[in-house]
Specification:
By secondary structure, the protein is mainly α. The protein contains eight helices and no strands.
């Protein structure tokens, strides 16, 4: 194996799960997340000779993943059409309480717009600073702050609504 390929494989083995997790949280769909990461890693491999000299290749790759997730949202003809409820799927009530909460949060996260979702995921799940999030998203720190705040408000309202409707 060529040195370049070995380094890239090591990078993907170390960073792949985190990139997939970020893609899932930003896109809201596991299959879409896999496609996003695959596209981003393909592009990253082509640029690997330059990227491996960057001080933080993981940050570069994460930005590629977020941009790829945005790209799919901007070009709807490139993505599959999904339906809200799949027949024969077990309902949320059948899951253990921990899984139900997780599913509530993920469903609420899917209701956010792509920019708000990316801000919330990068700031609070990936635990990045406002400045790091702004750099990844290519926007100002003020935009990150406002989008994250609006996203959290929307998440809180959506989760509260789900809990109230379940209690009735």
């Amino acid at each position: 194996m060529v040195e370049r390929d070995r380094e890239f494989v090591e990078f993907v083995e170390g960073a792949g799960a985190a990139l997939r997790r970020t893609a899932f949280l930003v896109s809201g769909d596991r299959h879409r997340a896999d496609d996003v990461v695959q596209d981003a890693l393909y592009k990253l491999y082509l640029a690997w000779p330059k990227v491996r000299r960057v001080s933080n290749p993981f940050a570069y790759a994460r930005r590629m993943v977020v941009n790829a997730a945005y790209d799919g949202k901007r070009r709807p003809w490139r993505r599959e059409v999904t339906i809200a409820d799949v027949p024969d799927q077990v309902g949320y009530d059948d899951f253990a309480a921990g899984h139900a909460e997780r599913d509530e949060v993920l469903a609420a996260l899917r209701s956010l717009g792509p920019r708000q979702r990316a801000c919330v995921v990068l700031r609070y799940y990936e635990d990045l600073s406002v400045e790091q999030t702004a750099e990844i998203l290519g926007c100002s720190t003020g935009t990150v702050k406002s989008q994250a705040a609006r996203g959290l408000d929307t998440l809180r309202r959506a989760i509260d609504q789900r809990r109230v409707s379940r209690a009735l």
